[in-house]
Amino acid sequence: MKYDVIIVGAGVAGLYAAMHIPREKKVLIINKRETFKCNSFYAQGGIALAIDAQDIPLHVQDTLDAGAGLCNEDAVRVLSENSRAIIDDLIERGFSFDRDKEGNLLYTKEAAHSKERILHAGGDATGRYMHYFLLQQNPHPMLSDARVVDLLIKDGECYGVTVLDHRESRNIYADNVIIASGGVGSLYEYHTNAPCISADMQGLCVLKGIELSDMEMMQFHPTVYVDNNSAQKMLLTEALRGEGATIEDEKGRRFLFDYDERGELASRDIVSKAIYDYSKKTHMQTYLSFKNFDRDYFMQRFPNIYKNLQLLGFNVPKARVPISPAFHYAIGGIKTDINGAVPSVRSLYAIGEVASTKVHGANRLASNSLLEGLVFGKRAVEDMLRKKQVKKDVKFEVSSEVMSLKEDKAKKNLLRKIMWENVSIVRTKSGLNSALNQINALLNEKIGKLLKFRLLTAKEIVLAALARDESIGVHFIEKDSND
Question: Strand pairing of 212-213 and 168-179?
Fold first, then answer.
């Protein structure tokens, strides 16, 4: 069977792209697991936008400042200039953002934003609400519990994908393929991502010779409750700090002002590194305090966080919660142009967290992620529909590679440990080289293709980090003790 479009991934980026493909087109969305197991579902804080024409230059500047000089300014302008129209489109289609009693949209402020410009839904469940809404609006069929394990590429053109479906591999052909598969969370021992976000498509691109960009730029969220036993940790949204939550040590001291005059409202990279450094120097636990919140307001504004923390035994907002940074977001990814097209392969697109549009530079501004997925998802479809190419039918043999071995699970866990210890918030050349040697050793062992994807992505992150000598944004290189 042949489709007009295959979309790999069913998060906000993939679903919003699907929404803009005409119903008469044959479209297939391929989803790796259950529909809610994606990073979009776990997005708490909200979605940023330029509120009006006057706010565009400010939103652009805030994004550029957070990106520490490594953003593509054209991409940032595309993001901001299209943001209001994207929000209006969602509202017109029936999506409900939180409003006040008079019906006005409620805007909040988050770290490194110069003003209140973030919309939210369900209090602290923006991603969940938006994802559910887009699933309801989706007009196209979906193949679930199937994972893409190959891209069918010949002479610089993509003809479809190979899927592993109920342990059987088969080819599915299409005129265009959009990759919207998310980030790399499962590469790290501690992360906030959905459990199935495992860097498959990035590693597959490495195998296919498709360029990845800015892979050293991995963002760590500073306020994560990490005492639960699973690898996926509970995110405590940036909006909490934007509305009055404070970070303090065991004695109640707000130490962030030692590192940045903005304190809790500094950008994520600064706050994460400050917590890491302060904890290392003082050996004290760091806490998120909610004492500035009224209980009723906290329950209404952050209902899911309130419920989850109460279940864990924290009497919030009176009680403070122990926190630590954890991996959160892949800034780097598959290199694309400003329309989401992969330059080296015709008929192939990448959107959302899996892509690198260079809109985030060296550090993503809070709540720009959902916006990026929506803006560039729509642009990718518009670009695709403009290109009315006639594609020949080309058949590919189905790969017979072994996908996984019994021993791979232990090696996946070892990789997570390697990445957390050597390629996380603070890096050293010796640590990076140690990680590279261990990853290369694992790649030389007998492993399944799915583990190879992870290892190849991890190797790209390490190589990119080794290639950048200077600390910038989320990439922080500390001198080795013997230097």
Answer: unpaired
- Decide if 53 contacts 167 (C-beta within 8 A): no
Choose the catalytic residue: 117, 128, 268, 364: 268
Q: Is the previous residue joined to 303 through a cis bond, with omega within 30 degrees of 0?
A: no
How many of the other CB atoms lie within 10 Å of CB of 58?
Answer: 16
- Angle CA 258–264–268, to nearest 5: 100
**How far is CA 73 from its chain centroid?**
20
Cβ within 8 Å of residue 28, ≥6 positions away: 3, 5, 6, 7, 140, 141, 142, 143, 172, 174
- Judge whether 320 counts as a catalytic residue: no
Token duo for residue 276: 């890491």
CA distance linking residue 370 with residue 353, whole number of Å:
9
Residue 178 makes CB contacts below 8 A (sequence gap 6+) with 5, 6, 7, 8, 14, 17, 340, 349, 350, 351, 377, 380, 381, 384
Cα–Cα dist 326/220, whole Å: 5
Select from 12, 417, 436, 449 the least CA-distant residue to 200: 449
- Which tens digit of pLDDT belongs to each residue from 381-428? 999 999 977 788 899 999 889 999 999 999 999 999 999 999 999 999
Beta carbons within 10 angstroms of residue 406's beta carbon = 7
Segment 353-362 mean pLDDT: 97
Average pLDDT over residues 129-156: 96
Residue 225 to residue 235: CA distance in whole angstroms = 6
Instruction: Give the containing element (helix H, strand E) for 287.
Output: strand 286-289
Cβ atoms of 290 and 280 within 8 Å: the answer is no
Taking the C-alpha atoms of residue 43 and residue 124, their distance in angstroms, rounded to an integer, is 8
pLDDT at 245 over 90: yes
pLDDT given at position 268: 84
Indicate the SS3 state at residue 338. coil
CB of 178 within 8 A of CB of 5? yes
Tokens representing 89 are 């489109």
Residue 204 has which token pair?
A: 């597959």
User: What residues pair up with 172 in beta bridges, in sequence order?
Assistant: 161
pLDDT at residue 228 in the model: 64
Rounded to 10 degrees, the C-alpha dihedral 22/26/30/35 comes to 50
- Is the CB of residue 180 less than 8 Å from the CB of residue 350? yes
